[in-house]
Amino acid sequence: MAMLLQLIFALSAFIGLGSAISDALAAEFGYPAGVDVWCGKAYRATNSSFEPGGWLDMPALSHTPLLDLSIRPRTNLYLSVEEYASVIIDAPISYMDGHAFVNGSFNKQDNLTSPFDTLFIDVSVVESGLDLISGQNITINTTNNELGFFLSGLTARLEPYELVITGASGDGAQFYTATTQLYYIPARTDGGSVTKIDNLYGGLLVQDYLSNSTAWTPLFPYTFYVSWDGWLELSIDNLRVFKDKGYNIIHIVPNAGLANEAFDFDELDEFLDVMDEIELWLMFDMRWTYKNLTSVEMQVNRLKARKSMLLYYTGDEPDGQVDALNATKITYDLIKSLDPWHPVSLCLNCLNYYFEEYTLGADIIMTDPYPIAVNTSWSTQYDTVCNTTYGCCGCDDCDGNFEDVPNRLDLYSQYQDILNLPKKPLWGVPQAFGNETFWARYPTPEEEVVMNMLFVNHGAKGIAMWDYPTEPDLANVTSALSKVLTSNTVSSFLLGSFHAQLSVDGLPRVDAASWIVGSQLLISVVNKNYVESPMANWKKPSGAVTGN
Ligand SMILES: *[C@@H]1O[C@H](CO)[C@@H](O)[C@H](O)[C@H]1NC(C)=O
Ligand SMILES: *[C@@H]1O[C@H](CO)[C@@H](O)[C@H](O)[C@H]1NC(C)=O
Ligand SMILES: *[C@@H]1O[C@H](CO)[C@@H](O)[C@H](O)[C@H]1NC(C)=O
Ligand SMILES: *[C@@H]1O[C@H](CO)[C@@H](O)[C@H](O)[C@H]1NC(C)=O
Ligand SMILES: *[C@@H]1O[C@H](CO)[C@@H](O)[C@H](O)[C@H]1NC(C)=O
Ligand SMILES: *[C@@H]1O[C@H](CO)[C@@H](O)[C@H](O)[C@H]1NC(C)=O
Ligand SMILES: *[C@@H]1O[C@H](CO)[C@@H](O)[C@H](O)[C@H]1NC(C)=O
Ligand SMILES: *[C@@H]1O[C@H](CO)[C@@H](O)[C@H](O)[C@H]1NC(C)=O
Ligand SMILES: *[C@@H]1O[C@H](CO)[C@@H](O)[C@H](O)[C@H]1NC(C)=O
Ligand SMILES: *[C@@H]1O[C@H](CO)[C@@H](O)[C@H](O)[C@H]1NC(C)=O
Ligand SMILES: *[C@@H]1O[C@H](CO)[C@@H](O)[C@H](O)[C@H]1NC(C)=O
Ligand SMILES: *[C@@H]1O[C@H](CO)[C@@H](O)[C@H](O)[C@H]1NC(C)=O
């Protein structure tokens, strides 16, 4: 009976079982009371369709060019033991964001107007006026300009420093400004680990504590959501079994069936001791409890000084569940105040539903479109149609094919452009389950690799599949893939450069991407056709000297 109950809880993550929201919340969203919703859509045959809202549209574009100056620290935090930091400055010409730009700068010396091609910039600390960077320049319409400075004028503390950048044309007639937050925080004294986010390439950076290394090494996280009560808990040796397959981090799904909806923490500690010992990094999931701040505080305080602690995970499909719009941010702020050394992630399920609000509460955004063996136009669970305002088909506004994966990742990237926010890393959640609810069967090993690699080709900086244990052939193929993706050779490309989409001719439905580091090129080609296709050609990206 207990097992059955847990199973129902676990499934409710997908199918909206018991997802009625409170009348007060329904009123805030403008929904009728007492209607079960998923992604804001009514999905029971007894309820009719209404507008879910929360849809982010492309804004009207400007007819004249804008200069969109922005600044962000190279890494999301610096430690008191570090002497040097840097910022990334973007100054693109945009038609979506920014301020008026006129391509001219007047020179009083000779009364001539020259092109406005250089922006003269200064960066300072708002509260003290301390200059960090002065008298430098940035070429108009360039991005990812990195400028360094010494941290010696600042004192490490928990609150971030507000930095401001000002940029002006040579004549001073055109002036731009932007701000960012710099976290310069105390180093740990309790032996706990620190995880940084690289705000340039989007990867995680960790220190290999087993060798006492102080170097920051990129980590491409490759894992599954792992069932605690259904598998891991059954034997402490499972930790080594999992790591030996090649997965470098473990995302443990807590037990909803316990009174605290989390873990027996004394028991978990024994597992964490082993993880510390073998450096199996932890993605700590608080899906059932993340809105309970008392519980979050207790859990974070228990976990935060662990060596193997990598990052937190709060809302599991908070958009699907229609959690309060401020829920993820409130919890994020609490976690940051208790543990500023580790990032916070969450997973969104909807195509386009209050993206801005829910992602405010995360450093890393995950997405889980599950397109295999699913009917996306007719709900096999609720016997209704599914469309953009109604129904729950298991994959929100999906087409039920491989394209759902890159479409979703590209859209989430575009939403961040529309919102004009610094880009947060996106991670993918490939489908590695089936033969249940909406999904008639498991993916095949080939389909599994295709989904994984489509996420990677479109810029995902981490992979966590749902879920483990999975079918033996999926465990096999992802174990093999883990050894490729987490190898230094491959992850140095994925986390040390930008991905570029390559155009492919000769065959439709072939997806190719490239990464260039120095004179080396990595290419990944994914065939979305269900037949072998040796005929596709791709164009060699410019800048590539040698292939490998
Ligand atoms: C929605 O459907 C439920 C039954 O599933 C019903 O009790 C309720 O009255 C319906 N509400 C509306 C507003 O149609
Ligand atoms: C620039 O224009 C101003 C005002 O018209 C004039 O007084 C000045 O002599 C000019 N200078 C030069 C170098 O031509
Ligand atoms: C400004 O004008 C110069 C000269 O015409 C041109 O080369 C440059 O591309 C222009 N810059 C922008 C951002 O439009
Ligand atoms: C921009 O800065 C560089 C490096 O400091 C300097 O060499 C260059 O002359 C500057 N360009 C302009 C237009 O001031
Ligand atoms: C600015 O850069 C973009 C991307 O590199 C390019 O497509 C565009 O033509 C440039 N715009 C101007 C005005 O130079
Ligand atoms: C790392 O440091 C600890 C504590 O100082 C020490 O016991 C251990 O031997 C060191 N490990 C390595 C690989 O140097
Ligand atoms: C919140 O969590 C605490 C600690 O587990 C628990 O005692 C309390 O009952 C929970 N509150 C709610 C509303 O679930
Ligand atoms: C968060 O939102 C809920 C529901 O919309 C509201 O009741 C609550 O007051 C908000 N909390 C804060 C701290 O803003
Ligand atoms: C989805 O279900 C509908 C209704 O049963 C059916 O007509 C349609 O062919 C199904 N589509 C797919 C892709 O299975
Ligand atoms: C979605 O389907 C419902 C139920 O058939 C219908 O009332 C609604 O108009 C449809 N919405 C759209 C956007 O087509
Ligand atoms: C699918 O699930 C059903 C019910 O849980 C089970 O009896 C059956 O063996 C499963 N089929 C496969 C191919 O896993
Ligand atoms: C998994 O891989 C092992 C070792 O390569 C092989 O012996 C086994 O048959 C494979 N299992 C499946 C289900 O593919």
Automatic annotation (TrEMBL):
UniProt name for this protein: Glycoside hydrolase family 18 protein
Residues spanning the signal sequence: 1-20
Keywords, sorted A to Z: Signal
Organism this protein belongs to: Hyaloscypha variabilis (strain UAMH 11265 / GT02V1 / F) (Meliniomyces variabilis)
SUPFAM superfamilies attached to this UniProt entry: (Trans)glycosidases
Keyword Signal: yes
